[in-house]
Write a structure and sequence with these properties.
This protein is of the alpha/beta class. It contains twelve helices and seven strands. It is 45% helix and 10% strand.
């Protein structure tokens, strides 16, 4: 913590708080019928995404999952543009055509959310190979859940990343469930990190509700990737506050489990650490939360009133065009 500036600490808290408030509002707006399709929120996992993305630049690339709102905000995507997109409005980051599970923002190095479990690792390896061949010094990060750790796409991507020695970092966010199936049942190995390490790369498991633990692990992975040592894997064990999707009744979880998940609050943990160390004051953090609340209110109001994409755009953005 002491190596981070006051600006960095405030930026980390701002992004975690943005995710928390944004996702709570998404949950509300979905219930009101303002969000079409499904929504999978990132509540409880804020420290994981922000800890991973904190030291990335717009020229470092990430590939996300179906639970990708948090990754977008951690990478610095615009709150208003995201709210428009999730509501399917023309002013969205993808012109309202991607929706909740397919947000992308290439200007921010966000290659896109992916509704395919284990879909991002192969994309990230290709992106990392590009970085290596161009000698940019940048990296590509693939986010996935514990369910993605069982996918052949993930295994092949990890092996290829090691063989080609590309600057790829695999992040497995273990929230205990692949959709509705518990990790204790679905993952045969005792340690997801050990299984990744078997491919020949450094791999470690950290507390995904602790920003500083995640940030430190990412710093180690970045040192190796940017320095030419090749890929690494980080497993962040983080709670999932809600079910697989908004509205999931979660009959497979006990009340105690849900309460324990809420008790592992990344924002409260961060606030306690920085205030006790006298690095930031409660008033500073309260002010950040208030600013974000106003920004999200404005984003929702504008998005609800905004038009849907014009019918003339139905066949645009289907294929990439050569410039």
């Amino acid at each position: 913590m002491h190596e981070m500036s006051e600006y960095d600490l405030k930026r980390a808290f701002r992004r975690m708080s943005a995710i928390r408030q944004f996702e709570e509002r998404v949950e509300k707006e979905f219930a009101l019928g303002n969000i079409p399709g499904f929504a999978h929120v990132y509540l409880g996992q804020e420290a994981s995404g922000v800890g991973i993305c904190h030291d990335l630049t717009n020229d470092d690339w990430i590939g996300s999952t179906h639970r990708g709102h948090g990754h977008c905000l951690a990478k610095g995507c615009d709150i208003t543009g995201m709210m428009f997109e999730i509501m399917g409005k023309a002013g969205g980051l993808c012109r309202g055509k991607g929706g909740s599970m397919h947000i992308a923002d290439f200007d921010r190095g966000m290659l896109g959310a992916n509704a395919i479990v284990g879909g991002s690792p192969p994309i990230a390896v290709g992106a990392a190979l590009t970085q290596k061949l161009r000698r940019t010094g940048h990296v590509a990060v693939a986010f996935g859940g514990d369910g993605s750790s069982n996918q052949g796409t993930t295994f092949e991507a990890m092996n290829m990343a090691v063989v080609l020695k590309v600057p790829a970092i695999f992040v497995i966010e273990d929230n205990g469930y692949g959709e509705h199936t518990g990790v204790d049942y679905a993952v045969g190995a005792e340690s997801i990190a050990d299984r990744a390490a078997a491919f020949g790369m450094p791999a470690e498991t950290v507390d995904g509700a602790d920003f500083f633990a995640v940030h430190a692990a990412m710093a180690r992975a970045l040192d190796g990737a940017r320095g030419g040592s090749g890929p690494a894997t980080i497993v962040t064990e983080c709670p999932r506050y809600l079910g697989h999707f908004v509205g999931d009744p979660q009959p497979y979880r006990t009340e105690k489990e849900l309460a324990d998940a809420r008790a592992r609050d990344a924002l409260k943990n961060f606030r306690a650490r920085v205030t006790e160390a006298q690095r930031l004051k409660d008033a500073d953090l309260d002010g950040i939360e208030a600013e974000l609340a106003a920004e999200i209110d404005q984003a929702v109001t504008a998005a609800v009133q905004a038009p849907f994409p014009d019918i003339d755009e139905l066949e645009t953005d289907v294929y990439a065009s050569a410039y």
